[in-house]
Amino acid sequence: MIADYFEPESISEVVSLLDRFGDDGCVVGGGQSLLVMMRHGLVSPRYLVSLKKVAGLSGIQESPDGDLTIGAMTTHRDVHRSSLLQRRTPVLCQAAAKVGSTPIRNLGTIAGNICHNELGGDPPGALLVLDSRAVCVSVTGERNVPLAQFFTGYFETALRPGEVVKAIEIPSPPSDMAGIYLKHVIRSGDLAIVGVAVLLGLESDGKHYREVRIGLGGVAPVPLRAHKAEAILRGNEISDGVLKNVAEAVMSEVDPITDAHGTAEYRRKMVAVFVKRAIRQATEMALQKGKNS
Length: 293
Ligand SMILES: Cc1cc2nc3c(=O)[nH]c(=O)nc-3n(C[C@H](O)[C@H](O)[C@H](O)COP(=O)(O)OP(=O)(O)OC[C@H]3O[C@@H](n4cnc5c(N)ncnc54)[C@H](O)[C@@H]3O)c2cc1C
What we know:
This protein has 12 helices and 14 strands. It is α+β, with helices and mostly antiparallel strands. Among the domains are: 50 residues, Uridine Diphospho-n-acetylenolpyruvylglucosamine Reductase, domain 2 (2-Layer Sandwich), CATH 3.30.43; 115 residues, Enolase-like, domain 1 (2-Layer Sandwich).
């Protein structure tokens, strides 16, 4: 049963409260996942500490050198609609636009999404290809955790007891790379059976891949980068032959489960289909960018 609910106005008050309550305390962002978990009796915190009134946790900033900072309480809707992010990180805007339903996008936050770390979340794959970091704060100080190390298991993260995510940082995204996020669901509004984010850049000859990053969701205990597949593409010529090898590599890198939405075998087949599709589309976009620059 909930004993008390707090709405502190600073991050230092938040971490002090969490430190005081230990295992009995829990942070609330938009409440979209936490309240579902509480309703089903899967978690039962005694003290809820809301981030709603903490100053400076919402919004998106760009530093003079082009790095981006997204505040923890920024909603999926605000990520999707940000003109700055649409220009700098369209792959993330596409992923945010595909989260659940309108109410979830209006209230759910980007930090809540990564901290909840549910199988098939959309933003994590996009954040991984952007080499993002979570800025984590506790009473003992602040540390940056690369997203590649943040997800540790189903519903588990590298967050330490008493720590909150204050922001997500994205190092200046290269302007000549093209990004796309594709999501496979049977029923609209569901979490992804397979989610694929691709960010790629071509050599100046327009015939070879220079840099390719592939982020996957829904196909392993944690969102992941498909490093073997990326290595096959890097420096290689654009061709259907190379995509066949990439599809095989991706299938060997994932570790899907069977659940109500699809079997492990289905997910493995679909991830190959969607990775090839995403690479083809991102390649077209990169070629177009090259022509227009
Ligand atoms: C019906 C439904 C459909 C959904 N569909 C999708 C989908 O298609 N794609 C998708 O990606 N997601 C989906 N989601 C998940 C949704 O994205 C998350 O519910 C939302 O982003 C969580 O954000 P929140 O702010 O509401 O987090 P909360 O519900 O407030 O918190 C979730 C968890 O994260 C912790 N937490 C929250 N913020 C922080 C922080 N700043 N620092 C540390 N810990 C924190 C909380 O303590 C809690 O454990 C769906 C959820 C529901 C209920």
